[in-house]
Design a protein that fits this description.
Layout lengths: L2 H10 L5 E4 L9 H9 L4 E5 L1 E4 L2 E4 L5 H12 L15 E2 L2 E2 L2 E2 L1 E5 L15 H4 L1 E4 L2 E4 L2 H11 L19 H14 L10 H8 L2 E3 L6 E3 L1 H7 L2 H4 L10 E6 L10 E4 L8 H13 L7 E2 L6 E2 L3 H16 L8 E6 L2 E7 L6 H6 L8 H8 L7 H14 L6 E5 L4 E7 L6 H11 L8 H13 L4 H5 L6 H13 L3 E4 L6 E4 L34 H10 L1 H5 L5 H11 L5 E2 H8 L3 H14 L3 E3 L11 E4 L3
Parallel strand pairs: 1-2, 13-17
Antiparallel strand pairs: 2-8, 3-4, 5-8, 6-7, 9-10, 11-12, 13-14, 15-16, 17-18, 18-20, 19-20, 21-22, 23-25, 24-25
Helix pairs in contact: 1-18, 10-11, 11-14, 22-23
Length: about 625
């Protein structure tokens, strides 16, 4: 960590991966909450000796840096205070800046075997995670899932007591065996009976210690009958859902949908067969399938990339989580969403070569038929496929409460000529002075409705501090407008560059209410026809410097009654800071069931909006 990087971070302010603490009175108690939160999320930097001054930060230094450093090491190595020390000597530095010494602590992301990292001696009460609103204490079920992920035994290898061959769909197993035989004509497993064959691929297992044997979780999810899979003693949260939205008609919600409706056997094998064909059916590229549908022939890297994305969603999901597998196809993108957290960081995924799979038995079943590369190479396949078409890079997002991972594959040009032409015309000579990174940021804001630090990092190798500095430079030039600050900062095109929404793009829309399932952008400006009514409701908050918390809640509930409003819109109406409003009013009202989020599966989306809960 260089002096310039620290100075840049201090100038930008607290971000998702930066936390500043005064610490002149000793090690802050909240330090260990932040340590736990960063370790259990994506890591980050904690800087001691920096104080907050009216939303700005100032380097104040530490009175006795060597003693502070010793106290830190003594505490981080105390198992009664923090569960694990993730740090080496290189992770703690004490640079001197302008004659003042500070302490910079780099907290790495803990791996699945180390999580949960917790304060004190009880993981159920001392585990934290980090989001754009700060560090929050984990619920017992979140901690339980982290503890389960520690196990070296795959989650899907568990033997299901009381389940047998009568709970499997014979046709699914028969079709799978046919695909296996076609792909490996001379394989000795071809001649085995069903139970022995299942044992070879992990669908049936015998525990050598307990002597128990039977169908595994993977075997049931891959080949089972619907009602057996969702049995309370099996996988009660199991849900598979494919949604296709290709119509311009706003009254047509889905042009095709595949979910458990009693018309087909809803297991992973049958879902994969049907969905992989639907996903690539109308790509304008040569593609051909064998008559058995499960094996491919003469395919392009684009088709392979789409299939890898589908397989990854199925084998990396935490089937104990909420929401199930959701695969969505739009005219300009594919979206793959599954419950659970990433077992490795996004940076490790993008670098490749690191693979952690939550459902190793399912992964092996797909690999037996030639599918499901390790994630470390699977993401490379996706990026290569998209680069071959000059499309925008894949986007990976991880959200909490509920834990979900979403992969978006946009079928949009990396630098669309239409967008470039518009920006050149609007900026004139100023366009030539922009750097390639600035052009990419403006194009991203134009095409996707918004741009933010982590999105830009997926497109290049720039340091996060440099990206934020560039984005704020565009704000200073009037080319971008900033929504929120610190951790929640997102950026949209400045007033003179904003265009009208054009169809179903990756992020589009100009109304307060957005149809469910869209990834649309909720604009900050309130439609003129509604503004006067809402400002009348909010007048008391505008006229009064202080309101009781209860009265503020009543006004927020009235403003959001029958409509969706973002934190920025509410902040503008109520003359309050949007981030403080979200943290102190909106989030607690959601927790108490008074408000509902527009995107409940992605609570930290920058375009999140709220409506009054239906009673």
């Amino acid at each position: 960590m260089t002096e310039n990087e620290v100075l840049a971070a201090v100038g930008i302010g607290e971000d998702y991966d930066w936390e500043f603490k005064d610490a002149r009175g000793g090690l802050p108690g909240s330090l260990w909450e932040t340590y736990s939160g960063m370790a259990n999320t994506d890591g980050g930097f904690i800087v001691l000796g920096v104080a907050e001054r009216d939303d700005n930060y100032e380097i104040v230094g530490l009175p006795d840096p060597p003693q502070m450093k010793k106290n830190f090491w003594d505490t981080v190595n105390n198992r009664g205070k923090i569960s694990v020390n993730l740090l080496s000597d290189a992770d703690v530095a004490s640079p001197e800046i302008d004659g003042k010494t500070i302490l910079v602590i780099r907290v790495p992301r803990a791996d699945r075997r180390q999580r949960p990292v917790y304060e004190g001696q009880n993981p159920l009460t001392g585990t934290y995670r980090r989001n754009y609103e700060g560090d929050y204490k984990c619920r017992p079920e979140e901690v339980g899932r982290m503890l389960a992920d520690q196990s070296e035994e795959p989650a899907d290898s568990r033997i299901l007591e009381g389940f047998g061959f009568e709970d499997l769909d014979e046709e699914s197993l028969r079709q799978y065996r046919q695909q296996f035989a076609d792909g490996q004509p001379g394989h000795p497993w071809r001649s085995l009976g069903d139970q022995d064959f299942l044992a070879k691929i992990g669908g049936w297992r015998r525990d050598r210690q307990s002597r128990d044997e039977g169908i595994t979780v993977a075997g049931l999810m891959m080949f089972g009958k619907d009602e057996a899979i969702r049995d309370p003693s099996a996988v009660p949260e199991f849900h598979l859902d494919y949604r296709e939205r290709l119509s311009d008609d706003p009254e047509v919600r889905w042009t095709d949908r595949l979910t458990a409706d009693g018309k087909w056997v809803c297991n992973i094998f049958q879902f994969f067969q049907r969905v992989q064909v639907r996903l690539v059916a109308d790509l304008k590229l040569p593609f051909e399938l064998d008559t058995n549908l499960f094996r491919r022939r003469d395919e392009t890297i684009v088709h392979k990339a789409v299939r890898e994305a589908l397989v990854n969603a199925l084998i990396h999901a935490d089937y104990r989580g909420q929401g199930g597998i959701i695969i969505e196809k739009y005219r300009d993108r594919f979206e793959f969403s599954n419950p659970g957290t990433l077992l490795v960081s996004i940076e490790q995924i993008l670098e490749g070569g690191v693979s952690e799979c939550r459902n190793k038995v399912l992964q092996g079943m797909f690999q037996c038929c030639g599918y499901g590369e390790r994630l470390g190479s699977g993401i490379d396949t996706m990026r290569q496929g998209w680069e071959s078409q000059k499309w925008r890079s894949p986007l990976i997002r991880e959200t909490q409460r509920p834990d979900r991972v979403k992969l978006v594959l946009p079928m949009i040009s990396l630098i669309p000529e239409e967008s470039l032409h518009r920006l050149r015309e609007a900026l004139g000579r100023r366009f030539a002075a922009l750097s390639p990174l600035e052009v990419q940021a403006l194009v991203t804001a134009d095409v996707e409705g918004q741009v933010y630090n982590s999105r830009m990092r997926l497109m290049g190798s720039e340091h996060p501090a440099e990206v934020t500095k560039m984005l704020q430079g565009l704000v200073a030039k009037g080319l971008l407008e900033q929504d929120g600050h610190k951790r929640g900062a997102t950026y949209r095109l400045g007033g003179g560059l904003v265009r009208k929404a054009s169809g179903d793009s990756v992020h589009s829309g100009d109304s307060v209410h957005i149809e469910e399932g869209d990834s649309a952008h909720v604009v900050t400006q309130i439609p003129p026809g509604l503004e006067a009514e809402l400002r009348k409701i909010a007048s008391e908050a505008i006229e009064s410097g202080r309101l009781s918390p209860e009265r503020m809640r009543q006004i927020v509930a009235e403003l959001c009654d029958g409509r969706y409003l973002s934190a920025n819109q509410l902040g503008d109406l109520l003359a309050r800071n949007p981030q403080g409003l979200r943290r102190r009013v909106l989030a607690p009202m959601v927790d108490e069931g008074l408000l509902e989020r527009r995107f409940p599966d992605e609570p930290n989306r920058p375009d999140q909006a709220y409506t009054t809960a239906k009673r």
